[in-house]
Amino acid sequence: LQERAILDINSAQFTDDLEKARVKYLGKKGELTEVLRGMGSLSAEERPLVGKVANEVREEIEAHLEKAKTLIKAKEMNKKLETESIDVTMPGKDIVLGKRHPLTQGMDELKDIFISMGFKVAEGPEVETVYYNFDALNAAPNHPSRDMTDTFYINDDVILRPQTSPVQVRYMEKTKPPIRIISPGRCFRNDTPDATHSPMFHQLEGLVVDKGITLADLKGTLEVFVKKFLGEHTQIKFRPHFFPFTEPSAEVDATCFKCGGSGCGFCKKSGWIELLGAGMVHPNVLRNCGIDPEVYSGFAFGMGVDRLVMLKYGIDDIRLLYENDMRFLNQF
Ligand code: PHE
């Protein structure tokens, strides 16, 4: 019996086979159990002898079972490791990570720069009134930007704002100087879309009003901004211009950050790129907001965020910013 049991145990391939062998010999109806059960019919002299042998056989079988179990477990584990091993040279699965839109990135960077200079962020409505966008901003009744061909009219008094400048008025009406705000946001103009025009675009407005604010403050502020945004070596120059709400007014150019000002294809050989509009807040605008221009003065500036983002990232068509093509967006 012992020999057969050991043979069965040693030929077992799986833990299942071992269990079968255990039941066959040691189970309730197992062969060894039968032997022990049959001991009642033995004589008093035979009983202890058979009992002793039977116990030895049980111990022997149990020891073999234990040993075989350890071996088979190890074998099964090895097999698992072999067949379920991971090929670390296989290409991985792409993890799709969301990113901020290049415009949002640009906007955030612009905001961070001005916030670091002590500006607060103020926002105004995209659907604006003619009063805040034109009248209060000192635009002459016949100013061309009032024309329907330039501005989207909801009705005679209500428009989609074509600039962020009306936020200046809204803020000055409510807040007395000192004022130091930026106002980022969406603007709309009745333009046919092309590489440089989009009927919806973004501006960032700046406004500083206090006692004794001069053109030098405007220049200094813009210089710090431009160096942070376009690079330490960037220089700026003011070109005289006209805006109804500033006097004097200027357009501000920066040295081309591609060629450093020597002239390249990017800046059309001029060495300069147009950056923003700016000027000293017109006394009429201050007066319209209840601020005494004899006491206070201020400067304002407004920049096209789309344009700046395009310059910085070398994007040559504004429409790319609004098409949401993943092949484009994934590059930023
Ligand atoms: N609002 C002007 C524009 O849209 C920019 C500007 C803002 C100019 C503030 C001067 C002062 O072109």
Automatic annotation (TrEMBL):
Mg(2+) binds at residue 247. One of its GO terms (cellular component) is cytoplasm. Its main location: cytoplasm. Its cofactor is Mg(2+). Keywords: Aminoacyl-tRNA synthetase, ATP-binding, Cytoplasm, Ligase, Magnesium, Metal-binding, Nucleotide-binding, Protein biosynthesis. Coiled coil: none annotated. One of its GO terms (biological process) is phenylalanyl-tRNA aminoacylation. Binds 2 magnesium ions per tetramer. Belongs to the class-II aminoacyl-tRNA synthetase family. Phe-tRNA synthetase alpha subunit type 1 subfamily. Tetramer of two alpha and two beta subunits. This is Phenylalanine--tRNA ligase alpha subunit.
